[in-house]
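Example record

The entry below shows one chain as it appears in the dataset: sequence first, then structure tokens.
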Amino acid sequence: MGFPQTRMRRLRRLPHLRDMVRETRLSMDQLVYPLFACHGKGVRREIDSMPGCAQLSPDRLAEEACEAADLGVPAVMLFGIPKHKDPQGSEAYAEDGIIPIAVRELKRARPDLLVWADVCMCEYTSHGHCGALRGEEVDNDATLELLARAGVVYARAGADVIAPSDMMDGRIGAIRRELDRAGFESTPICSYAAKYASAFYGPFREAAESAPQFGDRRGYQMDPANSDEALREAALDLEEGADIVMVKPAMAYMDIIRRVKDRFGVPVAAYNVSGEYALIKAAAQRGWIDEQRVMMETLTGIARAGADIILSYFAKDAARLIRKGSLGSM
């Protein structure tokens, strides 16, 4: 049947009717809030390129995480800023490193909050690359042991999910084996399976103080032009023991999210990264866009593409709107 019998606008006219027939529903249960932990007490260092975000000492981090939890955000992802950096990134796997300290503080403050711990070397190495070097190249196999050590240290501190973002080949299997040997066979791994060598990471590198001191990361992160390769990466990580696979970034890679979800049917996470956040914030500050509507449209689009879990610096703001039932105003 065509027009006039079929009028697609009938189900769009009334707000409650639009809500009833909405195909994609954004939920607070999908949100993970990334946070940056630094040493000290009472520290909050604002990040210029990420308005509203800051490096936080463990006490202030706990306050921020508890505020998010009170809004209904169920999980946080931790990134660490160490006291000292060295070529081997030793604080990444130190028992008294910033991530174990922060995890323990969060678990004391809010035991029910899910704590995800990012596993990578770039914040901790003096050269800024994601693993140990051999000459000026990352030594993939030598890095695996360091990543696995970090995963066990974080799990021992109380991390609920281990999330390796380094993009070394074989790291999921290495981390899974060491977690199992240490008695953490029930601790899940969320693999950054399809992590692209993206320009959208710029503000994060300021926040985490992790820019490479030479070269770039295109030798181990994925080429933005490739999508079939993302399926191979996800398949390998799942074979090695990943429980969740992530696509990063999100906005320019929604086709990848959909392909991964359709191919594997496993829990898929997507990271709404720092550059995506900063673009919306900057345009909103100039009055060019409605920040709340663009934020919610973006997050809904990521969910519509197939993401079950969304990591976003907008998590608290989105949770406030979801609690208010403001989705219908998008």
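Notes for this example: The mean pLDDT is 94. The domain at 26-244 is CATH 3.20.20.70 (TIM Barrel).
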